[in-house]
Design a protein that fits this description.
Bound molecules: pyridoxal-5'-phosphate
Helix content: 25-40%
Number of domains: 2
Strand order of the largest sheet: 4-10-9-8-7-5-6
Oligomer: single chain
Distance between the termini: 41 Å
Structural class: alpha/beta
Strand content: 15-25%
């Protein structure tokens, strides 16, 4: 059972009043989640009691900061059930993780004849880094298209005409626009049989379902802290040790080295080999706290709760004339995009905001999805564990009002 009243009491920002009148209804969780007191306090506590640089000092604060930083890595490791410390690399977020991978995988494993596959439903941060790497390293970049329901046309992979050229597949676990949950296990099983390295963008899945990277079978899994109740500026790249050991380094600097002479450098062991420079220590510690906090709610209960909210919201949206839901996948999660006949998504979002409802408007960093559906943008609502049915009712009433005013 998810006790939303108790959970909401731990999020100070949810008490915000809009226009001195409306209680905030925050339905933009796919863009970023709010932070519970445990996370806010972890940040304050770090800067109050233990701030020092990590891994470098013998003094008291430095070893305290190092212990807490490594404890946070342990939390991440436990949360995604990945088995080995060396496989959890702290990054700035999903975007940073994908850029690292696009560059390093291309440099280490890809030749001009090879193909990397992405999909048509990716966030820009899982498209653009591959386009850049493709220009730099000369591999071919191709994609798995989507159908009218917003599901992947997987025959593009399964029956790829040059399957032995496909070396990497990078795809999202859950679409941030369509809500589609992709069948990652089935896909990674196929890829393993065909020696295709798999990269999973977990930015939308990390906060909505149990993540067991070994069970998912992906070689790499990336996520951002701020989408799972942790601060911005911290994220994770999980990678299989065997691959990470072989892969070339990314950025150079302190911490990622074993020994430096004026002539040459030898590199540090995993995971430090990929953590050049001073990391975002406080944010990593707060991420550990966020995952601990989130896990204490029981993630499977959270999934069931959010699924029931999704069902309810879809049903209520169906009551309103002229609403078209973008994305109708059989397996979906946590967000709904829609357009309203005759009304611009931005006008609708602006009016909803005036009534205290925070929704997302625009292309959601997924312009190819908009192009596929021949639309400019959508309005999107997305849920978190503190979202309530009552808020969905408030959203629907506001939407009915706004639609009447704008038509
Ligand atoms: C938010 C998001 C990203 C990018 O995350 P950043 O935190 O901006 O790096 C990538 N993919 C998906 C599916 C997202 O929702």
């Amino acid at each position: 059972m998810v006790d939303t009243e108790y959970i909401r009491s731990q999020f100070p920002i949810l008490k915000t009043v809009i226009n001195g009148k409306y209680p905030l209804v925050y339905l933009d969780n796919a863009a970023t989640t709010q932070k519970p007191l445990a996370v806010i306090q972890a940040l304050t506590d770090y800067y109050t009691n233990c701030n020092a640089n990590v891994h470098r000092g013998v003094h008291y604060l430095s070893s305290l900061a190092t212990d807490m930083f490594e404890q946070a890595r342990q939390e991440v490791k436990d949360f995604i059930r990945c088995g080995d410390d060396g496989q959890v690399i702290f990054t700035k977020g999903t975007t940073d993780s994908v850029n690292l991978l696009a560059h390093c995988l291309a440099k280490t494993f890809l030749s001009k004849d090879d193909t990397v596959l992405i999909t048509q439903m990716e966030h820009h941060s899982n498209i653009v880094p591959w386009q850049i790497a493709s220009q730099d390293y000369g591999f071919t970049l191709d994609y798995i298209p989507i159908d009218n329901n917003g599901e992947l046309v997987l025959d593009k992979l399964y029956k790829h005409k040059d399957l032995d050229k496909v070396k990497v597949l990078s795809l999202t676990h859950i679409s941030n626009t369509l809500g589609t949950v992709n069948p990652i296990k089935e896909i990674t099983r196929f890829c393993r049989q065909h020696n295709i390295i798999t990269v999973v963008d977990g930015a939308q899945s990390i906060a909505h379902q149990i993540i067991d990277v070994q069970d998912l079978g992906a070689d790499f899994y990336c996520f951002s802290g701020h989408k799972v109740y942790a601060p911005m500026g911290i994220g994770v790249l999980y990678g299989r040790k065997k691959l990470l050991d072989k892969t070339d380094v990314y950025q150079g600097g302190g911490e990622m080295i074993k020994q430096v002479t004026m002539e040459k450098t030898t590199y540090n062991d995993l995971p430090y080999k990929y953590e050049a420079g001073t990391p975002s220590v406080a944010d990593a510690i707060a991420l550990g706290k966020a995952l601990q906090w989130f896990k204490s709610l029981s993630v499977s209960d959270v999934t069931a709760y959010e699924d029931s909210l999704l069902e309810y919201a879809l049903q209520r949206l169906d009551e309103i004339d002229g609403i078209r839901i973008i994305g109708n996948a059989a397996h979906r999660s946590s967000c709904i995009s829609f357009v309203c006949q005759g009304i611009h998504h931005l006008d609708l979002g602006t009016l909803l905001d005036a009534m205290g409802i925070a929704v997302r408007t625009g292309h959601h960093c997924a312009e190819p999805v908009m192009q596929f559906f021949s639309i400019e943008g959508t309005d999107r609502i997305s849920f978190a564990v503190y979202t309530t049915r009552q808020e969905i009712d408030m959203f629907i009433s506001a939407l009915q009002k706004a639609v009447k005013m704008l038509r």
